[in-house]
Design brief:
With 336 residues, the chain is mainly α. Helix content is 65%, strand content 2%. The protein binds fe (ii) ion (2 copies).
């Protein structure tokens, strides 16, 4: 078929029986040269096991984060203060579901099934972003998640559009466009609240105080404590280090906070003329690791909600499978 021809990795191939099998070292050299030329790796290309495993882990964690990330904001759909805000929030939460689906599909091209990935999530083996294990206490949290959490996600994800693995890079292009809308709707919602009553302004400031440090931790541990980052950078999976991304996020966010009229809760946050960047205070990594390891305020609730959704959806999966089998049987009968 036409698409199969397009899928061939490196031009016309000999028939399998006649084809010489390249040695592992030849395949490795071919892969290394591809990395050197900054070319994309596609699903049918040879790749080292470690590269494949790293990508499966990263893309599936990313997909889980999108799906679990629907929950904190989903809580507010029924309590949004106006029809307009409700429509925006529904669209955003749906987008996050879509991001999860693109990413599960990208990870599946590496030979791992969606069932395997979801099993790892549901049994607590797979991780997802620590940020989604915190509660959304007020309506201002929804705006702050858009502004800061989606803002941090954009900073993290734009370089992934240049990731060496083709399906992941292409998924990220579309995702980043949607994340940009998420960030803007959150910021705009906060701007409106900051022109409201003192109670509304206080609610925004309180939400900023609770989310700021957790957003800084979203970029992951300091470079010195990220042993896998260097390899991921060599492979073109990770383009910019955790600390550099965090710094860019802080530098971009400080002027936005000034326009908004809120204070960022860090007494050490100040412009460093020599570095041409903002300095900031220490991040509580003990809290980050405790949350990553399952002890954040909402870890159990989030996982229980996902498992219940999976179990409640069993009849839909069964019905879809039964329908597909019926269609397959019908087309086989017609072809006979
Ligand atoms: Fe997303
Ligand atoms: Fe988002």
């Amino acid at each position: 078929m036409y698409t199969q021809a397009l899928d061939l990795p490196d031009g016309p191939q000999a028939a399998p029986a006649a084809r010489a099998v390249p040695s592992d070292s030849a395949l490795q050299s071919h892969f290394d040269a591809k990395m050197e030329r900054d070319e994309k790796v596609e699903p049918r290309d040879w790749m080292p096991d470690h590269y494949r495993k790293t990508l499966v882990r990263q893309i599936s964690q990313h997909a889980h984060s999108e799906i679990v990330g629907m929950l904190p904001e989903g809580n507010w759909i029924s309590r949004a203060p106006s029809l307009k805000r409700k429509a925006i929030l529904i669209a955003k939460v749906q987008d996050e579901g879509g991001h999860g689906l693109y990413l599960y599909s990208a990870a599946e091209t590496l030979g791992t099934s969606r069932d395997q990935m979801l099993h790892a999530l549901h049994t607590g083996k797979a991780k997802y972003s620590s940020i989604f294990n915190y509660p959304t206490l007020t309506w201002a949290d929804v705006g702050v998640i858009g502004w800061l959490v989606d803002g941090a996600a954009i900073m993290n994800q734009i370089p992934l559009c240049r990731c060496s693995y083709g399906p992941y890079a292409r998924a990220m292009v579309r995702i980043c466009k949607e994340e940009s809308f998420h960030q803007r709707q959150g910021y705009e919602s906060l701007l409106v609240m900051m022109q409201g009553t003192d109670a509304q302004k206080a609610m925004v400031q309180d939400a900023v105080n609770r989310w700021w440090w957790k957003c800084l931790a979203m970029f992951g541990p300091p470079d010195a404590d990220s042993p896998n980052s260097a390899q991921s950078q060599r492979w073109g999976i990770k383009r910019i280090s955790n600390d550099d991304l965090r710094q860019s996020f802080i530098d971009a966010t400080v002027p936005q906070a000034q326009v908004l009229g809120v204070t960022l809760p860090d007494p050490d946050l100040k412009w460093n003329e020599a570095r041409q960047h903002h300095d900031h205070g220490p991040i509580d990594w003990d809290e980050f690791w405790s949350t990553v390891n399952g002890n954040g305020p909402c870890n159990k609730e989030r996982l229980a909600t996902r498992v219940a959704a999976w179990e409640d959806g069993a009849w839909v999966r069964d019905a879809a499978l039964a329908h597909a089998r019926k269609q397959q049987a019908r087309s086989l009968k017609e072809a006979a």
